From TrEMBL:
Similarity field: Belongs to the BioY family.
The UniProt record lists the keyword Transmembrane: yes
Membrane topology recorded in Swiss-Prot or TrEMBL: Multi-pass membrane protein
The organism's place on the tree of life at top rank: Bacteria
Chain ranges passing through the membrane: 7-26, 32-49, 56-76, 82-107, 119-137, 149-172
Major place of residence: membrane
Keywords for the protein's UniProt record, in alphabetical order: Cell membrane, Membrane, Transmembrane, Transmembrane helix, Transport
Localisation: Cell membrane
A Pfam cross-reference name: BioY
Name recorded for this polypeptide: Biotin transporter
Length: 187
């Protein structure tokens, strides 16, 4: 791995840690908190996937989760350690890797990167994929039917849709500024 790619992977793992500094929001409905860290997953997939390849988006999340597993309190609310992976949040955390990869893959192979296509990709990866990992594991850990865990996850939808919009706006803005800066250097 080239140094530039390693720096980007490390930077997005660090962004995940910074987003974890913001306190979690506990709804009282589910033990899984609302955090901003899924925004970091979407940004990693959208930016690293478009710039390099989807595997680097996944690497950033793997690095972040390895740091969490070693006990660093990088998750929202100062959580860390191997125990978080067997908590109701564990599946959502594991879903970070798959979501970042899929978002990166879809963005990387997208011919025309419009706002709405990017938004759809962030919804697919940042919501559907993460929920696909999180809901079954939450149901298993909490010993509840999967349908109950599905209904509990509806509390996350408004915030996650907002995070998809923010991630899309940021990546579109970054793409435009990068294109403009490349044009300036060519002149």
């Amino acid at each position: 791995m080239k140094l530039v790619k390693l720096m980007y992977v490390s930077m997005f793992a660090a962004i995940m840690g910074v987003l974890g500094l913001l306190p979690p929001i506990f709804t009282g409905i589910t033990p899984v908190p609302i955090t901003l860290q899924t925004l970091g997953v979407m940004l990693a997939g959208s930016i690293l996937g478009a710039r390099f390849s989807p595997k680097y988006a996944a690497y950033s999340q793997i690095l972040f989760l390895l740091l969490v597993a070693t006990g660093l309190p990088l998750l929202s609310g100062g959580r860390g350690g191997i125990g978080v992976f067997v908590s109701p949040s564990g599946g959502y955390l594991i879903g970070y890797v798959a979501a970042a990869y899929l978002i990166g893959f879809l963005i990387y192979h997208m011919k025309k990167k419009t706002f709405f296509k990017r938004l759809l990709v962030n919804i697919i990866g940042g919501i559907i994929v993460i929920y696909s990992f999180g809901i079954p594991i939450q149901a298993f850990v909490m010993d509840i039917p999967i349908t109950n865990a599905l209904f509990l996850s509806f509390v996350f939808l408004p915030g996650d849709l907002l995070k998809c919009i923010i991630a899309t706006l940021l990546t579109v803005k970054m793409q435009h500024s990068r294109v403009l800066s490349e044009r300036v250097t060519e002149v």
